[in-house]
Amino acid sequence: MTNMEIGEHRDILGIQVAACGWTPALERLEQFVDSEGAPRVVNFLNAHNANLAMRDLDYRNLLTKCEVLPDGLGVDIASRTFYGTSFPANLNGTDLVPALLVHIERPLRVALIGGRPDILKRAAENFASATPWHTFHAVSDGYFDRSDSAAILDRLAEIDPDITLVAMGSPTQETWIDTHIRQGHGRLVMGVGALFDFVSGAVPRAPQLFRSLRAEWLWRLVLEPSRLWRRYIVGNPVFLWHVLRYKLKSASRGSRITA
């Protein structure tokens, strides 16, 4: 997998995260879609998967091989801690992917992998309703045997998608992409987390106030406290501890974090 970078980058806990506005991001992603050769892989960094990367070296290493975009308040706090300024935009997949599909006016083939079967079907239908000039292929739900992906990869090769969206949650989606995706499986491949849940209507989006504060996690916690309490109530303080420790280590080495 190869990568053309999206502008300036900032070091967030040892992971290079793109720092740019919406328009440059959309334009660069469109270039990825139009490129030939190996897939351009894009993933997102938020407090949750940053915590995963801090305790899983293999996961951290695979994030260094792809383009990483900022998602949420946590990485914004880290950016302000290390650089004195927030990221120019919250480029989360839930907003970015639909915006990209609207932005690209030529017809595309888009493959969808992940979610429950009913959610996958509704997400494909709603994507097609919103951007009918593209063709959406519901390749597989997210409950297949990870050790036997041959049929899914054959289907991707048959479709030859311009964009492949993989929604299995972190770290599963990023690991599966890194392990299995090769040329012919998508020109732009993105790990998109809960995107299909939102697009299908299975999970409501947060009100605009939460989104503007980059605190959609809080809305999700209110909706699903039993499932998400550990990720946010425990995970967010752990993430802030990692940020503080990284800052102190940099200071003790006499080094300066640079973009």
**Which stretches are poorly predicted, pLDDT < 50 over at least 5 residues?**
none
What is the N-to-C order of secondary-structure elements (H for helix, E for strand)?
EEHEHHEHHEHEHEHEHHHH
Overall outline: globular
Look at the structure and give the mean pLDDT: 91
Beta strand count: 8
Can you list the strand order of the major beta sheet?
Answer: 4-3-8-7-5-6
Query: Main beta sheet, described?
Result: 6 strands, parallel
Domain module count: 1
Strand proportion: 15-25%
What is the CA-based Rg, rounded?
Answer: 18 Å
Q: Roughly how many Å apart are the termini?
A: 23 Å
Tally of alpha and pi helices: 12
What's the helical proportion of residues? 40-55%
Structural class: alpha/beta
Provide structural commentary.
- The chain has 259 residues and is of the alpha/beta class.
- It has one domain.
- It has 12 helices and 8 strands.
- It has a 6-stranded parallel β-sheet, sandwiched between helices.
- Strand 1 and strand 2 (15-18) form a beta hairpin.
- Helix 2 crosses helix 12, helix 4 packs parallel to helix 12 (225-252) and helix 11 (216-223) packs antiparallel against helix 12.
- The longest helix has 28 residues, at 225-252.
- The chain starts with 8 loop residues before the first strand and ends in a 7-residue tail after the last helix.
